[in-house]
Amino acid sequence: MSTPVKKVPIHLQSSQNRLVIKHGKIVNEDGISEDDVYIEDGIIKQIGKNLIIPGGTRTIDARGKYLLPGGIDPHTHFEFEFMGAKSVDDFYQGTKAAVAGGTTMIIDFAFPKPGESILDCFYNYRQRADDKVCCDYALHMCLPHWSDQVKREMEILCKEHGVNSFKMFMAYSFMLNDSELYSAFEQCQKLGAVAQVHAENGSIIAKNVEKILAKGIVGPEGHELSRPEEVEAEAVNRACVIANQVDCPLYVVHVMSKLAAETLALARSRGTHVYGEALVASLAKDGNHCKHQCFDYSAGHVLSPPLRSDPTTPLALMNFLAQDVLQLVASDNCTFNKAQKELGKANFTKIPNGVNGVEDRMSVLWEKGVHAGIIDPQRFVALTSTNAAKIFNLYPRKGYIGVGSDADIVIWNPNATRTISEKTHHHAVDFNIFEGMTCHGVPEFVIVNGRVIVDEGQIRAVQGFGKFIETPVFPPFVYDPSKLESLKPQRNGTDEQAIQNIREIEKIQFEEKAIPSVTLPESVVNTPSGKAPRPEGQRNIQDSTFSISEELDTERKSCIRVRNPPGGKSSGFW
Ligand SMILES: NC(=O)NCCC(=O)O
Ligand SMILES: [Zn+2]
After folding, report:
1. Composition bias, kind Polar residues: at what positions (predicted)?
2. ipTM, interface predicted TM-score of the complex
3. Radius of gyration over every alpha carbon of the chain, rounded to an integer in angstroms
4. Ligand 1 atom 5: the closest Cα is on which residue?
5. What is the mean pLDDT of residues 55-84?
6. b/e per residue, 488-513, with b = 16+ CB within 10 A?
7. How far is the C-alpha of 553 from the C-alpha of 313, rounded, in Å?
8. Residue 493 confidence (pLDDT)
9. Among 197, 248, 417, 495, whose Cα sits 20 to 30 Å from the Cα of 62?
10. Mean per-residue pLDDT for 163-182?
11. Distance (Å, rounded) from C-alpha 487 to C-alpha 480?
């Protein structure tokens, strides 16, 4: 039985912030139901049949379609300065592409510049991203070196800034050695953070590179030759061993080979708390594309660890995802234009590493996984959003369609198809690794925090609409799985208490947090826009002055976030 919604004061009523989606099939990782979903102020308020809703509410008919939790891409690199180039998808273009493809939250990697502290790096990323993001985002922090200061600042990031994951590299010039990895993992464990690794043996790669270049192999085909599967698998094993010594949950980013996935499977079977991420590129492409005679094409496929020449790899990785050896699919979106890739024309080691994927991740996984009959829609949801929400402690606010969760929803047409092309994608980059691929599964509507951003296939991205989401430490999924069941929201109903329980997380994070003691550099506090994150209460996510794009300037007034709206606080719009 449904209950009528509370009477809303007239001044809070606006058809803008209310939406009902009818007749769709709601897919969560734990089940499918046919119910209507009522959204108000950016939050899912009711799920059920014959809901009683206020007049003037927009209705979307989702008959024959799925309602999926908005995708969470846990691995992007927007405007990332790397290998002498800067990735061309910035936080605006990158998140716009994300939303166009059904992803409603991304987690980017903050990467400190040489000499920059990880705290300053965090502030700088916030400053860069906050005004640009079209959807919610969080940050992982990379640790390109180890020191006592890094250790201290990790604590500040965890306790005061909502960062709960740190990435260490076992390759590249900024890799950590085993002793440093041990210390970094130990600190993650103490703080309740998730340790992440880029797992490749950098010392072996350096020796291989010398040998391969000496043989005169300078083209993109040399990239994989220098980084064979066992070099990846060895690092996966070593990271698991080190994490085990300090009992730290470990997340291996971009598992790219069968051997590495098998190594991870073995560690999991021994009880290591390790989670593995596949990249969407590796499910659709193999390393033979790096042997093409056209440099732009081959170089466009260069990333690390490399796509594997073994043509059975994409299907094998898909099966590892089906069997829960791997838990998520990310994009590692790090896009470089052809001209930037040409930095490595005479030497493959100079090709900026990275490919696109944030826009096409969901469609490509649907095609290769669901449409191919390897996974069902529920597993698709786990791989594209729920597991990321659980591992990074966003669940059940994100990654779930339940009463009280954020209204991040995709209306997915499994029967429609689209053909991917650089000519029509929403990225800033002039190349698409999936060019020409036709996928079943099209996001016809994408609802971000209650607002319809993709509307019957048309995107109306709003710059600055997204907000930074803090990721609290000690995610139950990795630190105490027995607690997870009790967190799960109602799949059905209208219970105000359930809504309060989930919103409690937000309240703690944004309203009741102790004032941090850290002092910011002047340059960060006195930003020209005045919108940089600041410790004294953080950037106010309900800042009524946040900017939106020119294209939607007329909508500015209808979606203003306020801290203390008349009639009491709401976490959405009024
Ligand atoms: N993966 C890649 O090749 N580029 C992005 C940086 C990284 O994740 O290592
Ligand atoms: Zn990456």
Report:
1. 539-548
2. 0.96
3. 23
4. 354
5. 97
6. ebbbbbbbeebbebbbebbeebbeee
7. 47
8. 66
9. 495
10. 98
11. 12
